[in-house]
Design brief:
alpha+beta; two-stranded antiparallel sheet; 11 helices
């Protein structure tokens, strides 16, 4: 795959321009672009600006609302209920996080439950933003079904992303962002294209039997991380993000790849804790620093691969790419430029 490097400011302008050309208001386009570019800065390119053409294809087909009326209710001082009005997921997610943080500033803890949303990108940009405001966070979403219940042979659960974040004053936060399958289907497709076998822990065939045949795996189901434990985590994420939020859940969630013209009605939840209400910032910084140093001082089993903290590599990617430019697949950059040029040629200035 050919890659190229683009300055953050240029990539941000291209992303905003492409979204505006697709019918998204300028302020909303900026919020969406911020989340997706944060994903690219972290090195999570599968959830970065390469998603914009997919989002806009769904807008064109009527599956996503480019100009949503996102509504928030406050049934209790710390609780926010957000209806995304079928908006583009990162926009809905950004608004919901803001609502949760606002509640948290008032009460010490803020919780936002979201319905009527779509794919909202990776969890890490939201965790990072919360940490920058001094908030610890637990954030998750449900997703299109790709995982069978433990022992079953039909997909009912999504590869639901979830994450935790802990601020550390002026130091790097500790961030953990994970989806709940052993691997993404993209890795299985790559093995099928290469004609190689896969580990039997990755997927099952259509009968629910673990397989090392990538073609059989693509016709079957992804396996959850940690076996039945990962299955349990996926269930609980969907209960919070789908059932409790009022969104769709399990196989009621529409597949955006099979039916891009149908709203997904995804659900998310954002739980944020104002750490200042528990521990003064300098004391939390001291404690997290001690925690970090104790872990990183662990002797490495392989000296060439030292112990790392969750999110450490992504934060290193962020610093490097902010300084040197963002690494983007050339094909993704070309597509973004084409969409941006279409907006310019059409005279779009929303």
């Amino acid at each position: 795959m050919t890659t190229c490097t683009v300055a953050v400011e240029e990539l941000s302008e291209l992303a905003r321009s492409a979204l505006i050309g697709g019918g998204v208001p300028a302020d909303d386009a900026a919020d969406i672009a911020d989340v997706l570019i944060a994903a690219d800065l972290f090195g999570i390119h599968t959830h970065g600006v390469q998603r914009i053409p997919q989002y806009l294809d769904r807008v064109r087909l009527g599956g996503v609302n480019p100009r949503p009326d996102i509504r928030t209710d406050a049934p209790a001082p710390a609780v926010r209920l957000v209806d995304g009005d079928n908006g583009i997921g990162p926009l809905v997610g950004r608004r919901a996080l803001g609502d949760a943080l606002a509640a948290g500033r008032q009460t010490g803890v803020g919780v936002a439950f979201v319905k009527g949303s779509n794919h909202f990108g990776p969890v890490m940009p939201y965790l990072y933003d919360a940490a920058q405001h001094g908030f610890a966070a637990v954030i998750a979403s449900n997703a299109t079904t790709t995982i069978a219940p433990w022992g079953g042979k039909a997909t009912k659960l999504g590869n639901n992303p979830m994450g935790w974040g802990m601020p550390a004053g002026d130091n790097d936060p500790i961030l953990f962002d994970v989806a709940l399958s052993v691997v993404a289907r993209a890795k299985i497709r790559a093995a099928a294209a290469a004609g190689t076998k896969i580990p039997t822990t990755w997927a099952t065939d259509a009968s629910g039997v673990p397989t090392d045949d990538p073609d059989a795996a693509l016709a079957g189901f992804l396996q959850p991380i940690a076996g039945h434990k990962g299955y349990g985590l996926s269930v609980m994420v969907d209960l919070f993000a789908g059932v409790l939020s009022g969104a769709s859940y399990l196989d009621r969630v529409s597949s955006w790849s099979s039916h891009p013209e149908i709203p997904q009605d995804l659900g998310h939840f954002f739980i944020v804790i104002d750490t200042e209400t528990i521990c003064p910032a300098d004391e939390l910084d001291r404690r997290v620093t001690d925690f970090r140093e104790r872990l990183l001082a662990t002797p490495a089993a392989d000296p060439s691969s030292p112990v790392r903290l969750p999110g450490q590599l992504e934060l290193q990617n962020r610093r490097r790419q902010q300084r040197e430019g963002v690494d983007i697949a050339a094909a993704d950059l070309d597509k973004l430029r084409q969409l941006s040029e279409l907006r310019v040629s059409a005279g779009g200035t929303q």
